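stage 2 :: seqdesign
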């Protein structure tokens, strides 16, 4: 193909060389393009900074080394996150001559922390601590590990002091405190309500993990402590007992033989709401749904129809109950944890793992069928509720 056009314009092509390309490394690259790492420099990105640090602590819980996380909005408006996990490694990494703590907080290429298989999908592929550090005007890390308390300070992603070994201690865990850089963010004021909703979700999604949120700002000193499980989550979403079709909520979980996928479900029908399905993948809310939601809806609709026909609540001449009728008034929380989650799009809010759909269907069919068989009175109430739904086809 022959190129045509202005010869002067074409000559400019040859003037574009490698010397014109700027390559930024580490915190410099993050600070120049923060939206690439946290989504935005507005309130959403600001709060995502907190979620990234908390995600590290939740990973420690998933690995079996932590059962408590404390999140604090400090008096000066920063964030402090503490956990009672193993503590960030403090040994010097060869050949860099730098501590593992410093590498975790400064290197984009630093490797993943080992865990039992399910990591928290915070969106940054284990880069979260490095990104938070780079976008903070000040960050301090305190580690209780190997019999001592260790500390180090950073400014805008750069260490301003070496990792220092302090007094002896028998405690273990990590505390990271940071102040978002006002030169980066449109606002640096954290919303207690926004953070409270997220830490409450994490407590519900991880039974056995206690998460607290404290606001030390002078105008609103307050502390919330959250524990729970998925049934407690559903109970919070269904706050009106007289409207419940059955009680308590149905709950079950299952893990596959290879320990690469864990499915947890809690669900309860009520007469006052149109219904809500909240789904999560590796503790991240999947607002756009995905394969795990598809599996849940398919299995639930088929199972309800099969059960209703076996019990004579539907006859051979009746039309199948629609998915819309089955989900009328249903509040459900679906959580899957995968060793290798795959998300669609930059927002990472839609799961696309096909094995999630298959396994969720299998789990729902097995466990819900068993619950219906062992709770015939509640099961009959549920089917009657569904048959009376406005979206349910009328019997012939």
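stage 2 :: out
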């Amino acid at each position: 193909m022959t190129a045509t056009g202005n010869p002067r314009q074409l000559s400019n092509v040859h003037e574009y060389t490698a010397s014109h390309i700027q390559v930024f490394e580490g915190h410099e690259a993050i600070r120049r393009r923060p939206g690439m790492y946290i989504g935005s420099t507005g309130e959403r990105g600001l709060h995502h900074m907190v979620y990234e640090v908390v995600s590290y602590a939740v990973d420690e819980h998933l690995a079996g080394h932590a059962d408590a996380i404390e999140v604090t909005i400090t008096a000066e408006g920063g964030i402090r996150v503490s956990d009672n996990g193993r503590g960030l490694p403090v040994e010097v990494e060869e050949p860099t001559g730098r501590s593992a703590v410093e590498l975790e907080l400064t290197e984009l290429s630093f490797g993943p922390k080992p865990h039992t298989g399910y990591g928290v999908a915070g969106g940054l592929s284990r880069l979260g601590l490095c990104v938070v550090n780079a976008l903070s005007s000040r960050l301090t890390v305190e580690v209780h590990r190997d019999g001592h308390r260790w500390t180090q300070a950073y400014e805008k992603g750069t260490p301003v002091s070496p990792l220092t070994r302090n007094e002896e201690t028998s405690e273990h865990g990590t505390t990271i405190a940071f102040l978002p850089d006002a030169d980066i963010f449109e606002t640096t004021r954290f919303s207690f309500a926004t953070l409270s909703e997220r830490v409450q979700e994490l407590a519900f999604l991880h039974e056995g993990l206690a998460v607290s949120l404290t606001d030390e700002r002078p105008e609103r000193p307050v502390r919330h402590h959250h524990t729970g499980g998925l049934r407690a989550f559903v109970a919070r979403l269904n706050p009106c007992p007289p409207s419940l079709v059955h009680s308590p909520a149905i709950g079950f979980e299952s893990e596959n033989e290879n320990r690469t996928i864990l499915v947890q479900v809690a669900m309860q029908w009520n007469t006052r709401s149109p219904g809500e399905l909240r789904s999560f993948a590796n503790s991240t809310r999947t607002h756009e749904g995905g394969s795990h939601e598809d599996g849940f809806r398919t299995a639930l609709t088929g199972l309800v129809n099969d059960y209703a026909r076996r019990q004579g609540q539907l006859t051979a001449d009746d039309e199948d109950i629609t998915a819309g009728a089955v989900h009328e008034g249903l509040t459900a929380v679906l959580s899957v944890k995968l060793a290798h989650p795959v998300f669609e799009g930059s927002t990472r809010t839609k799961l696309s793992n096909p094995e999630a759909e298959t396994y969720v269907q299998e789990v729902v069919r097995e466990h819900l069928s068993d619950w219906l068989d062992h709770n015939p009175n509640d099961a009959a109430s549920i089917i009657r509720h569904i048959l009376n739904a406005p979206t349910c086809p009328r019997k012939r």
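stage 3 :: structure notes
- Residues 296 and 361 are 6 Å apart (CA to CA).
- Confidence is low (pLDDT under 50) at residues 1-24, 121-125.
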